[in-house]
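Our preliminary data section would be incomplete without showing what the modeling component actually yields. Below, a chain of 566 amino acids is followed by its predicted structure, encoded as tokens that our downstream tools consume directly.
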Amino acid sequence: MNSFRKFKEIFQKSNIYLILIVTILFVLILSYISYHELQREKNYLWELARSEGLNIAFSIQTLGSEFILNRDILQEVLVLFQKEVITFIDVVDRSGLIRISTDEQRTNQQVEIQYPGSINYIQTHDPENRRILQIIKPFDFDDRFSSDLFGYLFLQDKYLLIGINLEDYYMLYNQIKQRVMLNYFIILMLSLLGVYMIFRIQESVVVKRTLNNMKDYTTKLLETMDSGVISVNKQNLIKTFNRKSEQIFQLTKEEVIDKNAEEILPIQVKDKSIYQLGLREGEKIEEEIELITKNHARKILEVNTSLLSGESDQTGGMVILVRDISRIKRLSEEINRNKRLASLGKLSSGIAHEIRNPLSSIRGLAQFLFQSCTENDERKTDLKIILDEVDRLNQLINEILDFSRPQKLDISQFSIQEMIKELVQLLKLESKEKEISFQLTLTQKEQFIDADRNQVRQALMNILLNSIQAIPQKGEIIISLEKTTLKNEDMIQIMVQDNGIGIDSTDLFHIFDPFFTTRSEGSGLGLSIAYNIIEMHQGIIKVESEKGKGTKMSLFLPVRRNREIE
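Predicted structure:
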């Protein structure tokens, strides 16, 4: 969010500079256009004023010299042609002296003629400080030879001076100037408004695109995370639920979004709701919890929470990071189990050797006494019990030694179906005291594996014996076989499922520990030996059990051909 704000500030700042540059360019362009248009209007009014004066001058000349008989008539003619915009009309001699004027105060005043014999345009001011355009034009009569002598001689080398009042023209010019400035100011404002709107739309588009890109990136990031991400607002409604969360809690996004978190996704930490601890008490949580999903799968989760800031430093919600560490826990337990097994194996091997020597002496002496007694000797029964118990201890020691010392595998190729059928026939005789039915679900195609046949047979027998012992009197054992792929390797899966007493969840993680048993009889080494054998074949054992409903064990053995197993 901070990066987005920084991006927006940089974008806005760059837009301000750009708008300022565009504004200056518009002002310069419009100023240039306005100046030329005003100059054009000014020149037009100037030409209009000059045309007005020249028209009067030509009109006076049009009368002809024969119409002008004396000074008085000329005076009346000049007055007759004087208009509202004409301030005065003078007759000036070549020296610039005003000889006749419609304004008596101007008579006998001196006027400068800059270009004798030509039309002169001179801008000046009258006594009332009004701007005046003086048009000085020489008299030019085409009929002067037919005119009377007096008129010709009087007007010879004379100039007609027309004084045009420019105030009305300048007033009109100022009006035009105001109109032009107003028009261009409106154009400038509209242009700037247009530019501003363009930049605003562009900014909106860029910001919207950026937000969408960030949203897509955040969504992809959340969906590809290996941890579950759940966010709830301060009303305790779920707002974010990524794909990993769906896998962990076995719920779809549609089932939880905008739903009450307490109802749809209850998570307990320290016997309290995680939402109460986070949203109400403001506590940061870093805990491991156990979750039983709706499919009765047990998961160990690592939960971390962070509070979201709202307005006025109030809590705006909470983010919950959930990581499924069940596999890590299992691996850790397997590592710890292997360490315990290795240590226990060394200890067991030493103890077994120490026990075997005195047992051999005890058995030898008991055997000697047993053979020395007569058939009717009462001690012979007691000696027989001693021999049987010593043999049982020797068998236990052999099992301990088999468990503790590494076995070299004798790899051969054999049919797994054939071995299962042999075991079932053998175990039917062993379980004749119970009403147990065996159901086989084997593949039609014969499945061959490269393994130590005797070792695999012993592991499978130990597991089947464990299932038989778990059935009190009457029950069923299902044995299925199928080919599968695990860890990108072809595997044979052997599944043994019974409907016996099952295993308590607290005991489930210890069933492969040596000497662990829940029965009054037995050494507790059968499943440990089976686990070691499967592990030596680089296989896997998985257990699923529920108290009172039975147990399912799955053995995964690699299909190895023409390859030695170390």
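The chain has four domains: 2-172, 227-324, 329-404, 411-558. Residues 411-558 form a domain with the Heat Shock Protein 90 fold (CATH 3.30.565.10). Preliminary results of this kind motivate Aim 1 of the renewal.
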